Amino acid sequence: FFMGLAQELSSNLPSHHFEVQVYLMLEAGIFDVGVILHLKSLVGKMARTSILMAMEDFYAVHRNYTTKLVLHIRDSNGDNMRAASQAVDLLQNYYVRAIIGPQKSSEATFVSDIGNNSQVPVISFTATNPTLSSADVPYFLRATLSDAAQVNSLAALIKAYGWKEVVPIYEDTDYGRGIIPYLVDALQEFGASMPYRSAISRSANSDQVEKELYKLMTMPTRVYIVHMSSAFSFGSTLFTKAKELGMMSGAYAWILTDGIANVVDSLSPSVLDAMDGALGVRFHVPKSKELDDFTKRWNARYRQDNLDDPPLQLSIFGLWGYDTIWALAQAAEKVSMDNATFQKQQDIKNSTCLGTLGISTMSIGHKLLDAILQRKFRGLSGDFDLRSRQLQSSIFQIINVVRREPKGIGFWTAKHGIIQNLNQNGSEHTYLNSGPNLTQVVWPGEVSTVPKGWQIPTNGKKLRVGVQTSGYPELMKVEMDPLTNAIIATGYAIDVFEEVLKRLPYAIPYEYVAFHNVKGVSHGSYDDFVYQVNLGVYQIAVGDITIRHNRTSYADFTLPYTESGIAMIVPVKDGTTKGTWIFLKPLTTDLWFGSIVFFIFTGAVIWLLERRIDNTELTGSISRQLGIAIFFPFFADRERVESILSRLVIIVWALVLLVITSSYTANLSSMLTVQQLQPTVTDVHELLEKGEYVGYTNGSYLGDLLEQIGFDRRKIKAYNPDDFDDALYEGSKNGGIAAVIEEVPCIKIFLSKYCKGYTMIGPIYKSEGFGFVS
Known about the structure:
By secondary structure, the chain is α/β, with parallel strands linked by helices. It has 5 domains: 2-146 and 291-385, Response regulator (Rossmann fold, 3-Layer(aba) Sandwich); 147-284 and 393-419, Rossmann fold (3-Layer(aba) Sandwich); 463-560, 3-Layer(aba) Sandwich (D-Maltodextrin-Binding Protein, domain 2); 584-673; 677-766, D-Maltodextrin-Binding Protein, domain 2 (3-Layer(aba) Sandwich). Strands 7-6-8-9-10-13-14-15 form an 8-stranded mixed sheet, sandwiched between helices. Strands 21, 22, 23, 24, 25 and 26 form a 6-stranded mixed sheet that branches. Strands 2-1-3-4-5 form a 5-stranded parallel sheet, with helices on both faces. It is elongated. The model is unreliable at 1-27, 340-352, 358-362 and 424-434 (pLDDT under 50).
């Protein structure tokens, strides 16, 4: 495509009949270089002055050099075709050995391909589009930064202020679109997103810009990244219109990429006034005495060369242009020392073939390219090193436009993120710990409060939240304001929902819509309520809505916000009978048997021990000795024991007797004072076997569940929760119910009201708990 295009362009050049000898030696010491700029633009005028001063300064210092660059400056007028035409002319008629420029990324796409086919290095210090790759076009060098280099600094600002959404506003060109994929990736690393992308045509007029801004005002996002080239006047129009529409206020945040931030010093006072409060990132230029001296001379020279133009501030593009000339002049001297010749191998007459444009049979283009890549020095812009075929930088300056003046408020480095200061060596000594570590920022509207990044749109729709009155007002209660007819929802479910909204980094307008008529009568079951979300009646539904499998087929649920499970509410009864013989209740069979055995065992052991030492008090007839062995534990103080072992046994027995007595006393006291409450039903299968009546909340899915379990439909009764107490009190045999099947959270609310007389059995079945529907 480019071959054919260049042929067409060169065929339209003025006809010049000339012949080139087989070995044409260029005039000794002359090194022709083409320069293609948009000379009517700010950057073009700035670069022209910088380049001419670089020529003068370089050869004033290097008087002994045998070569001298001869610049052939051409005006592209911002047109891609014209830039390509000028490149062909420079190669065909002036045999330039290198081309500086062009200015725009779209122009560089054309010119770099022409230079690559001609084996002539093309060096641009303003083409920043990341899609321009030296891998595809090896003779193209970028003496500037790729736009992709700044996306991490932009993302760091977004992250530091906690914004989750951002809208890029960019010119609808290759330059404008080029940064977007890289910016998306950088934002996604910490969860931020682009809900909308605003692309503005280069041909857009003021009315179209205003229309796009009105469109942005209808969206909730209030953080904008503006990516425009300095040659595109839309940037000025954008901010002027934004201020007229009230978008330069405290609710908005504007961030400039380096396309505008690099030349913001040279914008008109009216545009700077409209930009007041905007942030921006741009390449950091280290201060030096040489830079200060050059800036003073440059200002004087620019005013001299442009008498009719207002003063212009030198930007990084002018410094890169200056350093590019120094790098190319050094490389030209090195190549010249190798006595390279620039040749033609055939007679050319009105040649339009790219293969004959400036081809060096001794590979001067390749040698010149290698020489440029080897140049590394400290220039006015900082370290100038093209070994990676483009400049590299790890430091960006963050600026804040305040009162018509860009003010440096901090820096971003690849190593430490956002910092406030740099020391003299450029290393960091202030670090980002929490929040942006910047000098106080003045936001649009001259406020110091950080914009939320989100606002209710001027004509935005409210989120419709469906609500339904629950049988448990503690969970959900829905009322209508008699004055405004507005729906008022309260309860634990509403508290959870509103707390979630408060914790979002942006505000969401919403309104409650009731699932019942003016008389408070529900329009259907909970299944019907959930289905309204699927029908689009509500955007979400909030309430005590159980997450069920059948409902997930037509609606999405949040995670549960309550504990899960289905249990029973059953009455309790006192399981003890207080009568005359209650003192025997603590004496269980095991206790009786153990006590008797221990009594006999203790007496027998003591009798045997005392018999060994012939204790006379334990002697006598067999019947007497048997009686002593049996009754000794009861009357241990009657007969005197002499054996030490016997006394130890008596001590152990006394301790055991004390434990038994204490345990008995405690149990008996408990029986006399504390109710021994026992549930009337312990298992759901017991209800099935006895054919008891059971109840559930009216409108709940639990009625169907009970049928699935095996209950007769005639034994299942629906109640309002307020009627559960009466129904349980009457009992199944008296027209009431024996148990209530309910969700665990609801049971706990019921038991908090009726703490006496009822208990919870279960959970008897699993459930997913309550959630919100979306």
